Amino acid sequence: MGKRESIPDIARNLGRWTDAIVARVFDHNSLVGLAEYSGVPVINALSDVEHPCQILADLYTIIQKKGGLNGVRLAWMGDGNNVLHSILLAAGLSGMRVCAACPKGYEPKQEIVAKARELAGEPSGADTAKSSIQIVTDPEYAMDQADVVYTDVWTSMGWEDEREQRLKDFHPYQVNAKLMSLAKSDAIFMHCLPAHRGEEVTDEVLESAQSVVFDEAENRLHAQKAVMACLIN
Ligand code: NVA
User: Fold this and answer.
1) 91 and 177 share a domain?
2) Does residue 232 lie in a domain region?
3) Which atom number of ligand 1 is nearest to the Cα of residue 83?
4) Smallest Cα–Cα separation from 5: which of 27, 34, 28, 26?
């Protein structure tokens, strides 16, 4: 996109042929361009800034496993990436409490944290707890009292040149049995997949009874159908 044909032209073509566009892109601005010019709903199926479809499926999974979202404590381990950005925004809207442990220099974007905190300041319903958003560097601190432990790859798309450095910087954030034991005993483990086993998560945790990664994967189907049902008349 944007090389063979400009984004505004692609958008106007697709807008004539389709009821909606589901786009998985690298640059978030490509989505903004599609939305501006296509005249049809544009669904973000992954960009370098956000991953909202994944998080809708994850919220549904948390509701299934924990009975709701309000007051649920989610510990994030690792990179302040697109997946964390969407979790933070979702927390602000849903009453979840998120504590993200990220190494120095790998924190989420400040404007996303500010937006999530702004959303969190507003009660999300009459009987809801206020959500909270914390960004820390200490993985053990973030795990304390966690109902949900979530991690993602240490090297997202676009950062491949930093892979060797990242392997070193993220090592203390690996979700292994020892770190997992610091969360609540009934905590669930989540990952958007694909996972790099032995890096951000061990086989032992990924394959444990606490792991709900394939429920999340199934729920992508249901959540994404729901998004389309909401948007397409
Ligand atoms: N954070 C990952 C998500 C992959 C589904 C990436 O952007 O590569």
Assistant:
1) yes
2) no
3) 1
4) 34
pLDDT digits 0-9 by tens, 56-69: 999 999 999 999 99
pLDDT in tens, 50-101: 999 999 999 999 999 999 999 999 999 999 999 999 999 999 899 999 999 9
Does residue 130 come out as left (phi exceeding 0), alpha (psi in the -120 to 50 range) or beta?
A: beta
Cα distance between residue 120 and residue 132, in whole Å: 6
Whether the CB of 163 sits within 6 Å of ligand 1: no
Domain range spanning residue 11?
7-47
Q: The CATH number of the domain where 157 resides is what?
A: 3.40.50.1370
215 is catalytic: no
Residues 77 and 164 in one domain: yes
User: In this structure, what token pair is assigned to residue 13?
Assistant: 């073509």
pLDDT in tens, 184-224: 999 999 999 999 999 999 999 999 999 999 999 999 999 99
Asked if residue 66 and residue 41 are part of one domain, the reply reads no
The reply to whether ligand 1 has any atom less than 6 angstroms from the CB of 217 is no
Best residue among 31, 46, 86 to mutate for probing ligand 1, ranked by most atoms within 8 Å of CB: 46
Same domain for 11 and 87, yes or no, is no
